[in-house]
Amino acid sequence: MEKMLLVPLSLEELRQVFQQEVYALLDAVDRPHSAQEKDLLCTQEVCQLLHLSKAAIYGLVHRKAIPHMKQGKRLYFSHKALMAWMATKQRATQAEIEAQADNYLQQHSKPQ
Asked: Which pLDDT tens digit goes with each residue over 49-84?
């Protein structure tokens, strides 16, 4: 059991202590999480994360081109799924394309 300390406080001092504790708890609950801590994102957060308009996000959702979840009329997006999706959209550099072409030609060249 914890040791308890009794301190005489006036009613006003007690009220201030409670008020500070309540504000601290409310602040902890309302504090926005970083994108990595908060896995589920709303449409507005996805717009900010991907630097796209809402119309562009809705277009991707309509075409089922972006990973999303729907609960009633609300759309939700997993941060981890979006990052994995973005990684698949990475384009190859010119050097990578040339290396792939050389590799393909070496493997599929006919012997003379």
From this structure: 999 999 999 999 999 999 999 988 899 999 999 999
CB contact at 8 A, 79 and 38:
yes
What is the pTM for the complete model shown? 0.53
34's tokens: 């970083």
Q: How many helices (H) and strands (E) would you count in the chain?
A: 5, 3
What is the extent of the structural domain holding 59?
A: 41-90
Q: How many domains does the chain divide into?
A: 1
Residue 59 lies in a domain: yes
Task: Give the span between the Cα atoms of 50 and 95, in whole angstroms.
Answer: 27
Residue-wise DSSP of 9-43: --HHHHHHHHHHHHHHHHHHHHPPPPTTT--EE-H
